[in-house]
Design a protein that fits this description.
The complex is a heterodimer of chains A (663) and B (265). Chain A has 663 residues and is of the alpha/beta class. Chain A has 18 helices and 36 strands. In chain A, strands 10-7-6-18-31 form a 5-stranded parallel β-sheet. Classes of the chains: A alpha/beta (663), B alpha/beta (265).
């Protein structure tokens, strides 16, 4: 016979003002199996917990129901209290009579009635609770960071600093990401390369960090503490171990007309190339789409000039396999494609550029050596129009519904830098709102307006028309003056919305982690767990989780590292015992559960079964890996034969709760 | 051979006979049978855009209903007729009160509730014939011709009701130009207004608008402009300071299909 104790909390007046707690305790005291039912002002306080502990011992309780706040708040508190009194912690149930009752109702009579019903449901459930024991699984002390931008670099450095090995997988030939392309950084206007490249070097020199550049994650298996990852090292046709980065091959390569992606296609590079002077690793890469040797079998100049014999035209993609305890996603962002924004004439006129292209046009290492010239005729622009929110905050299907967050600040930066360097150039900025929260951010924007006389105009640009005289007609509305404007601009700069990198979605599938409708990775809790994904052992760093500027990215990168380190320091991890398990006798091997499992916790095994006629048959049945299962319960609903059940939330427990409520 | 109810509209019988003639000839060549109802009336003109006015929409409903009675989709060519008929059809399908009022006025044998599918001729080329199939029937490809498609304001907007193409970044006419062997020229003013009926009241304003359109096309290197709208053609030809030959898209279609003598454009 069950012996159940019920403990009703007043939570000061939080519950007691709306729920007659004494009546609840009284009513629940008459439920079957309940041997003690009490109320107390603060059940979570030490004396409240002692009340529970003493009752467990005194009345030899086999189950505890606490009617209080949300289990998210104090379930653990009461589980620990029960455990210290010798009761299995999973024999404690919480009835939420605060968030789901007292806080949302006004009428005492009906709120009290509802609290009693919720209590009865918890009592009914606890009748069927069984003791559960959490298992343990070992942790591989090595981390994987996917993406080698500033987010990935910072995360890797912090993890290495804590004494763990960490691998960076970067899809491009060099680490550095978007920050390497940026000229100056707001709000201090220090040079991006000056603060980034030392970090890149630090990462390459740290003996605990291995950089797999020009590589991609090909496959992820396993679970928290023990992931097995296949990494595809793409053929770069250069032996990384031999190449010294001297660059002679890039000088001699005859194929000089390859669009240079590092400079956003504004100039050309050679077929064998090092993306930029401070690249890490500083190793040449051959672009097979343009290399004449690889395309036609003729040339071989790079091979003949290379003094260390690093060129290898026969190199092939290579797959390496490695175990990791934790994985940090740092796949970053890209500006959106502007093909759908013809009204801004981006594809019609070379002098209409994106902000990232402007970064390169103004960068000393860029196509013009840092002098701002129009791409079309290399003349100095005297009038520049910036258009904000191109594709951001759009309510139609072609744009993004969100604010890209960084554009207001970098546009103010661009406007200010141009006015500083070229005082004869007029600068206009069209905006919907100027959003500059952040330390020293609004002061920065005010400086652009007040000190540098940048013309900020509230309103949107409707049409950009390139003219044959080289000018660009910008038609816009000035919402505050309520008038239509036509500006004869020399250049137009579009603040394109940013979106997650295209590699993020397939990666999310491999990692069985979740994304939102915009393909940003979803954090485990938007406020309280911002750097963890919902999948244990997968952490989020930088703009892959949402638009972020550099300071925020670095802060999140270090936070993700701290979370990963917190996992890696453990020798083993305690698993959540509330996981699914399948009744093999009922399972028909239909795969329904495997398809709905978001964590990849379910596999199928062939098992021998003794049949009624005493023969032996081999049947395919589902098997749940308890270390991977997160206890979401999707499989228990999907299972057509009712073979899947969830520990702590079994079908019979849920049904008895429903019965208690409906009675 | 697929048969459609064909609605030419008033202007195609008067000022824009070419638009009508070559639309018919080309359709025949492409295996599309256009059947003109015996007693069609004016589409109602631009008055129908006044939403609370029911009477002006009735003539558009008559032609829609005539297509319904013959159980055929309806094809229009003129941008304005297309706009009026499709918008009216959309309103009837989505606004029960309006549908009720319209049917109270018309007392049709069976109430009309937006059952007819309306195609613009260009949509028919894209969705029924297919631009790939069209390209295969071309005998005189317009090779080397840089052609600027002029959409104007009525052909694609309001996009929800007309559901033909993205009004800011359309491709249907450019794809048509590619299909007949020409090179489309994208220019900024291709979906801006030509001045429309303003020309009757304020010629200077109409001239400002149409000049901006022609100049923008010229600046991007176009040899000619094509349009589906008789009023656009008028404005671009008569009111623009800048000059470029302006044709109906059906002119070039007929040329490409070998149904019309090739012009020097």
């Amino acid at each position: 016979m069950k012996r159940i104790g019920v403990f009703v909390c007043h939570c000061g007046t939080n519950i007691a003002a709306t729920v007659d707690v004494k009546a609840v305790a009284e009513a629940l005291g008459h439920e079957p199996g309940v041997v003690i039912s009490q109320d107390y002002q603060y059940m979570c306080s030490e004396s409240g917990q002692n009340l529970v502990k003493n009752a467990i011992k005194e009345h030899k309780l086999t189950g505890v129901v606490v009617c209080s706040c949300s289990p998210r708040m104090h379930e653990n508190t009461f589980r620990k209290a029960a455990a210290s009194a010798g009761l299995n912690p999973y024999l404690v149930e919480i009835a939420n009579i605060r968030e789901q009752c007292s806080w949302i109702h006004k009428d005492i009579a009906s709120a009290t009635e509802k609290a009693i019903i919720l209590g009865k449901a918890a009592v009914a459930k606890v009748h069927l609770n069984s003791p559960l024991t959490a298992g343990e699984s070992p942790v591989v002390k090595r981390a994987l960071v996917i993406g080698g931008g500033i987010a990935g670099i910072q995360t890797a450095l912090d993890i290495a600093e804590a004494g763990f090995d960490v691998d960076i997988v970067e899809k491009n030939p060099t680490i550095g990401g978007k920050m390497a392309q940026i000229d100056k950084t707001f709000p201090t206007l220090d040079c991006a390369a000056c603060i980034l490249t030392p970090k890149m070097v630090e990462a390459s020199q740290n003996e605990r960090i291995t950089i797999h550049s020009f590589s991609e994650v090909a496959d992820v298996k396993g679970f928290v503490g023990n992931f097995t990852v296949k990494i595809k090292k793409k053929a770069r046709f250069v032996d990384e171990t031999k190449c010294t980065g001297c660059g002679l091959c890039t000088e001699k390569c005859p194929m000089k007309k390859v669009p240079n992606e590092f400079n956003m296609g504004l100039d050309n590079r050679t077929a064998i190339y090092i993306p930029f002077a401070q690249a890490v690793p500083k190793v040449a890469t051959i672009d097979p789409n343009y290399c004449m040797m690889l395309q036609k079998g003729k040339c071989g100049i790079c091979s003949s000039v290379c003094s260390v014999g690093a060129i290898d035209y026969k190199q092939e993609d290579k797959i390496i396999e490695q175990q990791y305890g934790a994985i940090v996603v740092a796949t970053g962002f890209n500006p959106i494609n502007l093909d759908k924004y013809d009204e801004f004439a981006y594809n019609q006129c070379p002098d209409v550029v994106t902000s990232l292209e402007l970064e390169r046009l103004m960068n000393a290492a860029g196509p013009n050596g840092g002098t701002l010239l129009r791409p079309s005729d290399k003349t100095h622009p005297h009038k520049i129009v910036f258009v904000q929110c191109v594709g951001s905050r759009c309510d139609d299907s072609k744009g993004k519904p969100y604010c890209s967050k960084i554009c207001c600040m970098y546009t103010a930066k661009h406007a200010m830098l141009i006015r500083e360097k070229y005082p004869d150039t007029e600068v206009y900025v069209f905006y919907i709102d100027v959003r500059t929260p952040g330390k020293n951010f609004d002061e920065f924007y005010r400086r652009a307006v007040e000190q540098y006389n940048v013309h900020y105009i509230k309103g949107m640009v409707g049409k950009v028309t390139p003219r044959s005289d080289g000018k660009i007609d910008v038609q816009a509305s000035d919402l505050l003056a309520n008038e239509q404007l036509h500006i004869d601009a020399d250049m137009v700069v579009l603040a394109a919305a940013i979106e997650p990198d295209k590699t993020a979605r397939p990666l999310a599938t491999m990692l069985t982690t979740q994304m939102d409708t915009n393909d940003f990775f979803t954090e485990a809790h938007p406020k309280l767990r911002p750097v963890e994904s919902a999948t244990a052992g997968i952490f989020l760093s930088g703009a892959c989780q949402g638009p972020k500027d550099i300071p925020e990215t670095v802060a999140q990168a270090s936070a993700a590292a701290a979370k990963a380190i917190g996992l890696l320091v453990k020798n083993s991890i305690t698993c959540n015992p509330c996981v699914a398990h399948s009744d093999e006798l009922m399972c028909n091997g239909c795969s329904s559960c495997e398809k709905v499992c978001p964590y990849g916790a379910i596999t199928y095994v062939d098992k021998e079964f003794r049949m009624p006629d005493r023969t032996t048959a081999i049947r395919r049945v589902a098997s749940v890996n308890p270390a991977v299962c997160q206890g979401c319960g999707a499989c228990t609903v999907a299972c057509p034969s009712g073979a899947m059940d969830l520990n702590g939330f079994s079908n019979s427990q849920i049904m008895s709760e429903v019965d208690a409520i409906c009675k | 051979m697929e048969t459609f109810t064909y609605y030419p509209g008033c202007t195609l019988r008067t000022k824009a006979k070419d638009l009508d003639t070559y639309a018919r000839k080309s359709a025949e060549c492409l295996g599309i049978n256009l059947e003109e109802p015996a007693d069609w009336q004016c589409c109602g003109g631009a008055y129908t855009t006044a939403k609370d006015e029911i009477a002006t929409k009735l003539s558009a409903v008559r032609i829609l209903n005539s297509a319904k009675e013959n159980n055929r989709p309806l094809i229009t060519v003129c941008s304005a007729c297309h706009n009026v008929i499709k918008q009216t059809n959309y309103d009837i399908s989505n606004d029960e009160e309006m549908a009720a009022k319209v049917n109270n006025y018309l007392k049709l044998p069976e109430p009309y509730n937006g059952e007819t599918t309306v195609y613009h001729y260009l949509e028919m080329l894209r969705d029924v014939v297919g631009f790939d199939n069209l390209a295969q029937k071309v005998v005189n490809p317009l090779k080397g011709k840089k052609i600027a498609a002029y959409y104007g304001c009525l052909l694609l907007r309001p996009s929800k009701a007309l559901a033909m193409d993205d009004p800011e970044n359309p491709t249907i006419m450019e794809d048509f130009i590619k299909a007949i062997g020409g090179t489309p020229v994208i220019y900024a003013q291709r979906n801006e207004c030509c001045g429309g009926y303003i020309t009757l009241e304020d010629k200077a304003q109409a001239s400002k608008r149409s000049s901006a359109v022609v100049r923008s096309a010229k600046d991007q290197g176009a040899d000619m402009i094509i349009t589906a709208c008789p009023l656009c053609l008028y404005n671009l030809k008569k009111n623009s300071d800048a000059e470029l030959p302006v044709y109906y898209f059906t002119d070039l279609l007929a040329e490409a299909l070998g149904l019309k003598e090739v012009q020097n454009g």
